[in-house]
Write a structure and sequence with these properties.
Chains A, B: It holds the Pfam family FUR. 2 copies of one chain form a homodimer. Chain A has 4 helices and 6 strands, in the order ααβααβββββ. By secondary structure, the first copy, chain A, is α+β, with helices and mostly antiparallel strands. The first copy, chain A, has 2 domains: about 5-80, Orthogonal Bundle (Arc Repressor Mutant, subunit A), CATH 1.10.10; about 90-130, Dna Ligase, domain 1 (2-Layer Sandwich). The first copy, chain A, is globular and about 50 Å long. Bound molecules: manganese (II) ion (2 copies) and zinc ion (2 copies). The structure holds a DNA duplex (30 and 30 nucleotides).
Chain lengths: ~140, ~140
DNA sequence: CTCTTGACTTAGACAATGTCCAGTGTAGGA
DNA sequence: TCCTACACTGGACATTGTCTAAGTCAAGAG
């Protein structure tokens, strides 16, 4: 995710060890970690990084659109580095595994005008639920 | 929601003033209250009802399928008495208003087999976001 | 109708997640 | 190398939800 760090730098943000580690920890496909999971992994590389910094850095990455917040359950929000390819989520009801998926068509198109109640509708988030292969 | 109370009774549950008040407070269309909002309204009718009882009663109603839990943001879960008609949600990004909506077709049909990663997919929850008429 | 009893309710402690602040440290330009 | 505005830290605090021990009461039995 050096790309992400470069974008931060271009915005005039200082590149610190903490921000670098958070970006590294969040790299990969189908990554959807909670803030505390990011903190635990970051601590392994940079022992004294604080919870506040992890929350701050994740929040900043969300603000600039490089990371997406995903709330698939009523628990902790998850942070998703796959911000440049619109996608939806498939969640295992038993173990919580999250996969990125791309449904066909635009989900917004399924909501007819007479079901919009005068809203200006701009986005649709879909969470598919089921059991993953490991959970039968 | 005397219907709901009757179902509780049929399951051998005692009908108490607390359960009656929670059921009454949750009655209506497009109702999506948080547990604390339910508690505040219930307190107006039954001053000493406790938070624990509100949480317990809502959880019981969810368990028997008479109420649905809705998590449209990363904040408090909302409780929805419209449990017998499958529907999705339209949320105002500014004021948080939630409306029940019925998209056309089955949302599950939009997820092709090669995007299911071997999961047994059983449900899809859609949250539409936009601005309500009052929020321009 | 009254009694009995096990289910229900309560208050408050505790847990999980997230926010905020004052004091300290440092990245990066001058 | 030095300065200083910005970032980081530890901890207090806020919100949302769970749990438990002790008191209360709904509803069936007699
Ligand atoms: Mn994702
Ligand atoms: Mn609803
Ligand atoms: Zn699983
Ligand atoms: Zn609105």
């Amino acid at each position: 995710m050096s790309d992400l760090l470069e974008r931060l730098r271009e915005r005039g943000w200082r590149i610190t060890a903490q921000r670098r580690v958070v970006a590294e920890v969040l790299d990969g496909d189908h990554v959807h970690l909670t803030a505390d999971e990011v903190h635990a992994r970051a601590t392994a590389r940079l022992p004294e990084i604080s919870r506040a910094t992890v929350y701050n850095t994740l929040g900043e990455m969300v603000t600039i659109g490089e990371v997406i917040e995903v709330a698939t359950d009523g628990r902790a929000k998850r942070y998703d580095p796959n911000a440049h390819h619109p996608h939806q989520h498939l969640v295992c009801s038993r173990c919580g595994t999250v996969r990125d998926v791309r449904p066909t068509g635009d989900p917004l198109a399924a909501l007819p005008a007479d079901e919009r109640f005068g809203f200006t509708v701009s986005a649709a988030e879909v969470t598919y639920r089921g059991l993953c292969p490991d959970c039968v």
